[in-house]
Each structure stands twice: as structure tokens, then as C-alpha cells.
Amino acid sequence: MFRNFRMISYVVFGRGCFNQLESILAEKRSDSDSFMVFLVDDVFESSSLIQRIHLGSRDQIILVNVGDEPKTIYVDELTDKARNFSSRLPDGIIGIGGGSTLDLAKAVSLMLTNSGSSADYQGWDLIKNPAVYHVAIPTLSGTGAEVSRTTVLTGPEKKLGINSDYTVFDQIVLDPELTAGVPADQHFYTGMDCYIHCVESLTGTYLNAFSKSYGEKALDLCREVFLVGGEDSADKLMMASYFGGMSIAYSQVGVCHALSYGLSFVLGTHHGIGNCIVFDCLEEFYPEGVREFRRMMEKSNIKLPRNLTAGIENSKLEKMTDVALMLEPLWENALGPEWKKVMNRERIKELYRQM
Ligand code: NAD
Ligand code: ZN
Question: How confident is the model at residue 157 (pLDDT cuts 50, 70, 90)?
């Protein structure tokens, strides 16, 4: 069965295109009593970006905190907040921030029209009703969350996305100027998320011409950004993120993401930096990719934290391994249908002990 997947309906790209947001949203406002809810990363609380949002008279801003990556409990809290502004639903949810904020915006837009807790929908195609109209405005490039059909959430039992056609954004606003203030280390970690998406997609057994076309272009752009540099790096990385996301939409990620999910679930390690820590230990699986990654790391002057798992309790190591092993499609993509013959609990624990 071939995957028949939904794509973003509208895309606007270019430096300064954020200024077009008001006219884009105007078409979606149903009447004078309607309102939109902006979920904005609280890093922008006193920034000029927040002043640039043209608020309608009933619009609301919710500042979101991404100190922890999105949890189902936080999504439920934000959904209640958005619901309690009025007796009617908002006409739109607009997420402004990095991958965490975009995932929160996706999840809230889904949960406004689907009953229960967001934890009930972690999985594939469990969502029953279409979401409220939702828009992504990335301020940090790399995750591909702006194009994917998932919102990655940590729930009480698992770290797993709400994967559905309804999760996909209706509109994305790609303005490279918005990434100007990202700290250099964060820029690298999230940029490497994109690089690793490409390596895992391009070396995987699920590869096909669709994924390859997007993955190769995204990889080239990452090389230009992280090995050469230049004035239009922000524009290039924003497009690399988009293309990297499109590449994995029709293939899969691999060993690095499987292990990184386990690390994140147990230790709370953030996705970008977690991927970098894991990838640096995976030379046997991705020899060329890891060597190039190290060159990029050197060029950006990045020193990764070490000894994350030193002295870790055995129960935690077991839990990390459980979370990683649950992600069967990732292992199958990386190592083929017979992956269980080459990867087992002991080997995974050994890899974790190196981190
Ligand atoms: P993030 O959104 O967690 O943000 C990282 C840090 O950068 C935060 O402190 C944030 O406040 C700050 N920041 C963001 N934009 C900034 C700006 N312009 N200036 C200054 N600071 C800024 O980071 P991320 O790496 O973009 O996202 C990681 C999240 O994305 C994880 O939760 C991960 O699970 C998720 N993810 C989702 C998908 C998907 O397809 N849905 C794919 C990959 C990752
Ligand atoms: Zn990723």
C-alpha cells in the first residue's frame, strides 16, 4: 500500500513575509465576534516580533514555555485556556516559535475539536475530527515540524506523535528574518536535526526517488550552511528544514532518532542536542555522515556534553531501551527487515553507555 499523504495547503516564503500575516488571516475570520489564538514562544515576550502581530479586537496571545519539550498534560492545559476565551471556538491557532511551539500549536488545534486528553491520540490516525485552521510561523529552522503530519508529545507512558492528516498545517509562513536571534549552539543543534533527517532518510532501506530528491537537496543546503556559510544561510536552512521534512514524510528516520527518543523520554534531553550526542556515537552505522557532522561541529565550535549516562540506574537504562525498541519502523528503515538479528537490547544499552 502506498502512502497517500496530505500536504500543506498554503506556503509563503521570503524575508519580511511575516508582514503579510494580517491579510492572510483576514480571509479566515468568519465575523466580527470571531477570534484567533496566537501561541507564541515566551522567548519573544518583550521582543519586537510580538509587537508586529496585528491583533484583531478579540484575538488572544498565549505565551508558551518550551523549557520542557511538549507534554500531553501541557497541551491539555493550553487547550482548556484556548477554549475558555469564548463560548465559540477560535477561527485559527497560530504557532510562532521553534519545533516545540509549532507542535503545541498543532496539538491544540486538534484537541479543540476532539474530546478527551491529547494522550489518547498518541499514535497513528486516531484523530476523528478535523482541527481548527492552524498556521505555523517557524523562528528556528531544522525540525521540519512545519511540514510534517505529526506533533511529537511526551505522555505519561510514551513519547509518540499524534500522527494524522488533520495534524498538517493549513498555512506556513517562512520568513528567514525571524531566525536572526537564535543562539549559535541552538542554531547548530536544530540545524543538525535536519542534517540527520537527511542522512537517515538517504541511507535507509525505505528510500525512493521522492525522498531522495528532497533529501539530497536538503543535504546540499545543510553543507552550504554549515561548511561554507554566507549571507543567505538563514534562507537556505529554512528551505533545508522544509525539504528534509518532505524527505522523511515518504521514508523514515533511523538509528539516531530511535535512540534519541529513549534519551529524551528518560533524561529530558532536548531533540536537537540529543540527536547530536547520539549521532556522534554512530560511526559504525553512518560512517560518512558522522565524519561530516564532526567537521560541521568543529566549524561551528561546538563542544557536546559527555557522560550523560555515567552512573545511570539500570532501571533507567532499561526504560530508554524500551522506548527506543518500540520504534520498529525506524530500525527497519535503518537496518532492513531482518533488523532484529543485528540489533538487540544489549547492543542498544551498550550504545547508550557510550553517550
Ligand atoms: P525548540 O522549539 O524546543 O526551541 C529551542 C530553544 O530555542 C528554546 O529555548 C526557544 O525558546 C528558542 N528559540 C526559538 N526560536 C528562537 C529565536 N528566533 N530566537 C531566540 N531563541 C529562539 O527547538 P527545536 O529544535 O526547533 O524543536 C524541537 C522540538 O521539535 C522537539 O520537541 C521535537 O520533538 C520537535 N520535533 C517535531 C517534529 C515534527 O515533525 N513534528 C520533528 C522534529 C522535532
Ligand atoms: Zn528530528
Answer: confident
CATH class of domain segment(s) 10-179? alpha beta
User: Which residues 6+ apart lie within 8 Å of 121 measured at CB?
Assistant: 110, 111, 114, 127, 162, 164
Of the candidates 198, 100, 81, 95, the one whose C-alpha atom is nearest the C-alpha of residue 154 is: 100
Residue nearest atom 20 of ligand 1, based on CA coordinates: 182
Supply 52's cell numbers: 508586529
Q: What is the DSSP string of 189-205?
A: HHHHHHHHHHHHHHTST
Ligand that lies nearest to the alpha carbon of residue 256, given by its number in the listed order: 2
The amino acid occupying position 57 is S
Contact (Cβ atoms closer than 8 angstroms) between residue 210 and residue 248: no
Q: Which CATH number fits domain 184-353: 3.40.50.2000, 1.20.1440.120, 2.102.10.10, 1.20.1090.10?
A: 1.20.1090.10
* pLDDT tens-place string over residues 313-322: 999 999 999 9
- pLDDT beyond 90 at 94: yes
CB 202 within 8 A of CB 187: no
Question: Which of 7, 41, 276 should be mutated for ligand 1, with most atoms under 8 A from CB?
Answer: 41
Ligand number nearest to the C-alpha of 182 = 1
Residue nearest to atom 16 of ligand 1 (CA): 182
How far apart CA 99 and CA 225 sit, in angstroms, is: 19
Residue 58 CA to ligand 1 centre (angstroms): 28
Ligand 1 pocket check: which of 7, 271, 330 to mutate, most ligand atoms within 8 Å of Cβ? 271
Listed by start position, the domains of the chain span 10-179, 184-353
Strands of the chain, DSSP E: 10-13, 36-41, 60-64, 92-97, 123-124, 134-138, 152-154, 159-163, 171-174
**The model scores a pTM over 0.85:** yes
Of the pLDDT bands very low, low, confident and very high (cuts 50, 70, 90), residue 2 is confident
State the burial class of residue 13 (Cβ atoms within 10 Å of its Cβ: 0-12, 13-18, 19+).
middle
Q: How far is the CA of 275 from the centre of ligand 2 (A)?
A: 7
Q: Which residues contact 148 (CB under 8 A, 6 or more apart)?
A: 167, 168, 245, 248, 249
Taking residues 18-39, report their average pLDDT. Answer: 96
